[in-house]
Amino acid sequence: MSHTIDVAYVAGLARLALSADEKCTFQQQLETIVKYVEKIGELDLSGIEPTLHGQSLVNAFREDVVVPSMDRERFLANAPERNGFEFKLPKIVEDA
Amino acid sequence: MNILKLTLCEAAEGLRKKAFSSVELTREVLDAIEKKDGELNAYLSVDAEGALRQAAAADAARQSGRDHALLGVPVGIKDLINVEGQPCTCASKILQGFTSTYDATVSARLREAGAVFAGRTNMDEFAMGSSTEGSAFKVTRNPHDLTRVPGGSSGGSAAAVAGGEAIAALGTDTGGSIRQPSAFCGCVGLKPSYGRVSRYGVTAYASSLDQVGPMTKTVEDAAVLLQALAGRDAHDGTTLDVPVPDYRAALRGGLKGLRIGLPKEYYVEGSDPEVMACVRKAVDACAAAGAEIVEVGLPHTEYAIAVYYIVATAEASANLARFDGVRYGHRTPRPDSVFDLYAKSRADGFGTEVKRRIILGTYVLSSGYYDAYYGRAQKVRTLIRQDFAEAFKQCDVMFTPVAPTPAYRIGEASNDPLKMYLGDIFTVPANLAGICGISVPCGKTAAGLPVGLQVLGPAFGECAILRAAYAYEQEVRA
Asked: Do A54 and B194 touch (CB under 8 A)?
């Protein structure tokens, strides 16, 4: 496993703008942390099933019945910008 | 009334006997916050008006014949649990100004029982941290030594309960965030088994690990509060349809015949000698009182921190994707594009530890690394679960330290993330295995800092840990 982390690339995947200072600090800290967690590479894990959840749950089913949803106004109450009953966003589609 | 000493059960008794009203009790709590919180910084916000209104309603309900152990009792709520009409910042700038528009299931259950929501307690931002220094707003101080941290991430709840600013509080525990601050501040904190308590309406950090639980002055108080929280919730598909036992009734089993396991990997060199001496003393006293002590093994303990910081950060990176400046929370002014809107809103809003964990979590999930990190970590998690399943064949509960050190000084560990992470070694395995645990005070260091005894039980073994912790607290410690 590699210890070089391309912090700028990963930050892009995470949709997170980082300052030059943050990139530099995180680079060093994350490489230390990743080197530490690579300890799990020592173990022979052939035949071991992964644990996906805290308990061995399979599926949680419920009756397929219609129940009232929360009022629309509650979802919009904390919107940074809104337009009537819509969340307002900057333009997404570029001009032709 | 002395809020510092008053337990939840005593408060309930006082209300029942009409020694005081809920309005009087709530005023006492609000006064205590007013007097002390300038120093402790346990609360992020206080809803005096709302609390007094709820208290008056509780008094009226009692007058008309209603009764419940929590009716009219004020509680503190960690600031990542939604309570309708109150702020819910998760101690993050990204949620500054956010007001909850619905109750989390745990809040709804407390509201139904008649509890009063006095205020919102401080925490590490998005519950990521072990000292509450990661709050974007204030640094909470340990009531036993104001130069030291209260632990974290539920440090505000622990400091409020231990410092006489709350009768009881709710915390959340993803890798020790209820138990470790309880140990650092000298109160009782219970992390329920995964699936025991609903997380609906609780801001998610690591969804396969998070649990909500009580932080109180006594083990009996923890049992009473857990009773109100536990049970299946249709809004949270990870809650199990397992009957909720009478936790208070379970307290009375005593120590005779109880098999207490000591996992040998938790009793190695490296922990603070004073902490270990307090834990050893508790074990010896329980043995003298009739418990059977058994040495057990948890051979994969040394991998727990590595597994935890892969699984937790991976899940956090996905959970925190919802904070994008679109529907709620901070939005950067005048973004150039949608990408810019996301990236800058998140950059402005998140603090350093949250960013660090998002980057680490995104990295371990990224193409080419998924199997090596997340995939392997989930398999090692299976080994850790199997360790506990095997060990619990030989014992009913386990006794361990909660943390390798007592509370450290503010600023002492906050610049070295890995060092801070390693302090979680005795608490994260319970979250990885989905089992339950409780922290109960077991003495103090020479400097007067509290030490916590951790009692671990199997999944849905809350009765066993409450019995053991109560017997220790009532029969042995006193």
From this structure: yes
